Amino acid sequence: MTEGDRETRMNRLQECIRLAEDEYDQMYEPRTHAHPAGHYSDAKDFFGEAIRIARELGLNEEAERLGKRLAHVKEVFRSQFEGSSYGSLAASAGPAAAPVGEQASAAELIRRNARMVIEICQKLTEFEFSYSADSVKWLDGYIERIRTERMDAEALENLQSVMGSYLGEAIIVAYGGEWARDESGWHVRFNEQNRAYPFSKVAKQFANGAEDSVFRFYSAIGPLLSGKS
């Protein structure tokens, strides 16, 4: 590496650190902290690039310092944004994100995650958030409001998992059925012929929008089970 190349890399290192810290600060900015995940994702990317450059330059102590700083930023995001639009939901992993050995234990984890969604969404709504149709409809609109925001891949996966847990429990309350698992994953099983896959449906709405509405999915189950669809 020439002296000029090294100077260029050093400048980029300092720029990445500056940008990373700026994104971290934006997580607390009153105008933007309601949706911190995008700034969190960018901060991680810039810190990651800075660490890589530091290692390339042989600045091992600086790389170690930046690694600790990145770990701190991750911890802050996971622990301090309980009141954000989706921070606390995204911080909890559901069974779709973490394999569980026994189905009974996994089903209880699903139910726990569903209860957590109710507790958190109750703080975001002006009505009693429960397993009701109105609550599912609100969640449908909520997904539409946040689905296009920049979001860390891990946070998105966990968010889809806890929302899928809630949707499945809402389906069971309205239509019966029980949690089960097959080669396609966790689902609500009504009988041998009929099953609903809430985790998959939540992921599809995040990916495709209203054409894969979770509320329309939920509402169609009753007519399907009664043979009126």
Strand percent estimate: 5-15%
Task: Report the top-level CATH class of the largest domain.
Answer: Mainly Alpha
What are the low-pLDDT stretches, counting only 5+ consecutive residues below 50?
30-34, 92-102
So how many helices?
9
CATH-derived topology of the largest domain: Four Helix Bundle (Hemerythrin (Met), subunit A)
Give the termini distance in whole angstroms.
69 Å
Short description:
The protein is mainly alpha-helical and 229 residues long.
Write up this protein.
With 229 residues, the protein is mainly α. The chain has two domains: 78 residues, no CATH class; 140 residues, Four Helix Bundle (Hemerythrin (Met), subunit A) (Up-down Bundle). Helix content is 66%, strand content 5%. The chain has a three-stranded antiparallel sheet with strand order 1-2-3, covered by helices on one side. Helix 7 packs across helix 8. It is elongated, with a radius of gyration of 21 Å. The N and C termini lie far apart (69 Å). About 7% of the residues have low confidence.
Topology:
Layout: H1 3-26, H2 37-56, H3 60-80, H4 87-90, H5 103-122, H6 133-146, H7 153-175, E1 178-182, E2 185-189, E3 195-196, H8 198-208, H9 214-226
Antiparallel strand pairs: 1-2, 2-3
Characteristics of this structure?
three-stranded antiparallel sheet; 229 residues; mainly alpha; 2 domains; Four Helix Bundle (Hemerythrin (Met), subunit A)
